[in-house]
Design goal:
Helices cover 38% and strands 18% of the residues. It has helices spanning 21-35, 43-58, 80-92, 105-117, 135-142, and strands at 69-72, 97-100, 122-128, 145-149, 156-160, 164-169. The chain is globular, with a radius of gyration of 18 Å.
Amino acid sequence: RLYYRPGDRLNVPPISDTPTAADTRAAIKLLDEAVGEFPYEDEASAANTLALMLTPLVRQAVSGPVPLALIDKPQAGTGGSLLAETIAVISSGHTAEMLGAPRDEEEWRKQITAKLSTGATMITVDNVEGALYAPSLARALTARTWTDRVLGRSETVTVTQRATWIATGN
């Protein structure tokens, strides 16, 4: 149920069915222009960021769950939330749905239902402090559908859970 109509001036160069090592390096360099200056802990962290950038692009082809991505910042103000937003904009053209990490389980459930009911494809739990313990979040991350009561009503809603989830924290 998705229709794509590119603009008349869109010019996409041909993509090889058998990319060379040089093609791969050029693609990684292009992605690195957007996220390469973040203060990564190590090369594995930078590689995980590239994987996170690709996850929303292939998410609809993955029939099961995908893991929560964690952007663990070395200290406050180093740009972890900006990194999450950059990834969202690159993959979807708009910013992610943002939520704070609630302290109680009922609030987690309400926020998850609200975000998924709007069709969110990228959801960022921003500025997590301490342990991230939330049974509702665990259920959302491992479920293909999400069912919950509609806030203020005596009825339930069932929505597909196809979002890519990111958590940021120091």
